[in-house]
Inverse folding.
């Protein structure tokens, strides 16, 4: 029992380590094996250990990245405690729902996937095994998600003829995906990665650095060819707040220039909402559409309902906007790691999936690669072009 449990736990950890490798996005498909490893555990505690090993290995960059993110407000041990706590919360449903009976696993397995994908656990439900559906059943959308869950359940129940039938569907879906060509219009959309330093907070703003940043963004936009859409990373612009009349005037002029040549730029900035709450958003230049507002900011780091300077959240928002005549689904930074925000957006049948992140705090970790890997996998599942931009 112990030997098998240890082997399964190591296998779970390897599935977690499959996340976060540039140039090897298909490794995300291994996440779909985690529920099967869980089902083979000989006891509830080994089942929990398999899940915990997976989540801790997949989020291995968190202690180092969070240590930088919270360096000014929390002790070093806090980032390690955050990593352990998040792993335990994600593993808890798998621990509690495990059963030695395959018939019971047939419903507890989907239940665990659902509980870790949806709030409240879903607020920190990183690298959910459901994401693997993009590599198992590409192009099938929500049917692909259902296909993955059904395949896992059928394997648990050892219904091999049905497993073979679903596996055949997966093979055909992957062959079709290999031959599929992107829509012609998607070639006019692009993302640009940057390496900007961190901008200071409102309490200690560096106006010289902000001016230099604004000039660089304006140069990128001015060089944009007519009819193109450029996506820039999250919070690249200085804060767009009351009293920043000079910045607002420059952005208005730039937006008019872009509109005149039929181009548009999506660029991250903090803005004040109608309720005077601070929002993390993608501001649209060259178009009169409203900003694309982040729904789930980083809990504790940005989303602090108890603090006056916290970033507003709207977890139940659609995450859909209009840009250059296209319906855009978007995921800003932390949202790229979660499941439910992307699925809500995909239910609205977008034309394109946009991801923007500012990973200055995690540039030397696996986190940026995992964000891109997850977003590309969702795009593959729903056959939607993905445009990403990261500041790292």
């Amino acid at each position: 029992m112990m030997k098998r449990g240890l082997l399964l736990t190591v296998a779970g950890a390897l599935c977690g380590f499959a996340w976060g490798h540039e140039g090897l996005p298909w490794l995300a498909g291994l996440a779909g094996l985690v529920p099967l490893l869980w089902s083979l555990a000989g006891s509830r505690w080994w089942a929990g250990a398999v899940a915990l090993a997976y989540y801790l290995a997949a989020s291995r960059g968190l202690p180092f990245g969070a240590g930088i993110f919270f360096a000014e407000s929390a002790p070093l041990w806090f980032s390690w405690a955050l990593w352990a706590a998040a792993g335990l919360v994600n593993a808890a449903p798998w621990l509690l729902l495990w059963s030695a009976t395959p018939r019971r696993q047939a419903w507890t397995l989907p239940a665990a996937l659902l509980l870790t994908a949806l709030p409240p656990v879903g607020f920190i439900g990183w690298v959910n095994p459901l994401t693997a559906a993009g590599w198992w059943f590409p192009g099938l959308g929500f049917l692909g998600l259902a296909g993955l869950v059904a395949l896992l359940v059928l394997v648990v129940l050892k219904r091999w003829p049905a497993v073979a039938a679903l596996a055949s569907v997966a093979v055909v879906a992957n062959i079709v995906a290999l031959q599929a060509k992107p829509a012609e219009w998607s070639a006019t959309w692009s993302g640009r990665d940057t390496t900007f330093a961190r901008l200071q907070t409102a309490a200690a703003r560096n106006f010289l650095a902000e001016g230099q940043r604004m000039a660089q963004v304006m140069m990128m936009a001015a060089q944009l060819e007519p009819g193109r859409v450029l996506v820039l990373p999250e919070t690249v612009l200085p804060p767009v707040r009351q009293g920043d009349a000079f910045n607002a005037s420059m952005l208005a002029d730039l937006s008019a220039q872009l509109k005149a040549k039929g181009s548009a730029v999506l660029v991250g900035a903090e803005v004040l909402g109608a309720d005077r709450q601070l929002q993390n958003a993608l501001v649209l230049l060259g178009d009169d559409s409203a900003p694309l507002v982040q729904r789930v900011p980083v809990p504790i780091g940005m989303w602090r309902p108890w603090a006056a300077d916290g970033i507003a959240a709207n977890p139940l928002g659609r995450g859909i906007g209009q840009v250059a005549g296209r319906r855009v689904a978007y995921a800003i930074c932390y949202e790229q790691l979660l499941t439910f925000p992307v699925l809500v957006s995909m239910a609205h049948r977008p034309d394109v999936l946009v991801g923007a992140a500012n990973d200055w705090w995690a540039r030397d970790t696996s986190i940026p690669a995992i964000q891109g890997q997850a977003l590309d996998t969702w795009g593959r599942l729903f056959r939607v072009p993905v445009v990403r931009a990261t500041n790292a």
About this structure: The chain has a mean pLDDT of 91. The radius of gyration is 22 Å.
